[in-house]
Design a protein that fits this description.
It contains 5 helices and 14 strands. An 8-stranded mixed β-sheet has the order 8-9-10-11-12-7-13-14, with helices on both faces. Strands 1-4-6-5 form a 4-stranded antiparallel β-sheet, covered by helices on one side. A two-stranded antiparallel ribbon has the order 2-3. The N and C termini lie far apart (49 Å).
Length: 254
């Protein structure tokens, strides 16, 4: 009889900390490391089981008294944009999107800082330095892409923007069954373009073009206004106690 090595991940539990979404609640997370040549397969498996990736860590909520965080994935092949989304697509038809390997740039970081300063001054990422941003992008052992969204070049563009002004950026993982949107940000000067929604619509199309079924959006938190946008992209699945279920539009989580 021989002993076969077991290559199973080790999971760890964080200490309780104040919940960033629901006042008066405390959050805990279970997490593991995504490293080595099996990282991509493990990331696929864990994402399908409700985990999210941050650098080389996969995590999911493990709160003791709350189940408000619900994993959401859009059913890309069945999706049809509503009237409002069609207007957003038309408004941004001049956007030029290009996909790159997961490599940071000073231009991306400048946009990232402008986004945080305008939208998330008190958030947990508000003090991220250029090195922190580089780690967020580069520290990945799974197939990850940076997608840059630019406006068409203009005669008065600065010399450091020869390809047009950078308007938005998405950091996304390519998976066996779709795309997971890890993080995205946009120029607050272009709030009227609804670039956050536009990037999700673009990821739905990219997923459709690949012939894959799902766009993973992370967690929806019932009762958190900042998360409401995630339930607008229908049809979608929510991960419940018995597995993935079609979302009916009614509130879930408690």
């Amino acid at each position: 009889m021989t002993n076969q090595p077991v290559q199973s991940p080790q999971f760890f539990l964080t200490a309780p900390s104040p919940c960033p979404y629901l006042e008066g609640q405390f959050e805990r997370k279970v997490f593991t490391h995504l490293v080595g040549d099996k990282a991509a397969d493990l990331n696929d498996l864990l994402t399908q089981g409700g985990f999210r990736r941050s650098q080389n860590i996969a995590y999911r909520p493990a709160c003791e008294s709350c189940r408000a965080c619900v994993s959401v994935r859009i059913l890309a092949q069945e999706f049809t944009p509503n009237r409002s989304m069609k207007r957003i697509l038309a408004r941004n038809r001049d956007i030029i999107a290009r996909e790159f390997p997961a490599e940071p740039s000073s231009e991306q970081y400048a946009l990232f800082r402008a986004y945080l300063d305008a939208r998330h001054q008190q958030g947990g990422m508000s003090d991220m330095t250029v090195l922190d941003y580089a780690m967020m992008v580069e520290d990945t052992h799974v197939p990850t892409r940076v997608i840059e969204y630019r406006l068409p070049p203009q005669p008065d563009d600065e010399d450091d923007a020869p390809y047009g002004r950078l308007a938005a950026v998405a950091l996304s993982d390519l998976m066996g069954d779709g795309i997971s949107m890890v993080y995205s940000f946009f120029d607050p000067d272009f709030a009227d373009r609804s670039l956050g929604t536009y990037m999700i619509l673009d990821h739905i199309q990219r997923t459709r073009d690949r012939g894959l079924p799902h766009v993973y959006l992370g967690y929806w938190v019932a009762g958190s206004r900042k998360m409401d946008y995630k339930t607008r992209f229908l049809p979608q699945d929510h991960l419940m106690a018995g597995g993935w279920e079609r979302y009916s539009g009614e509130a879930v989580g408690s």
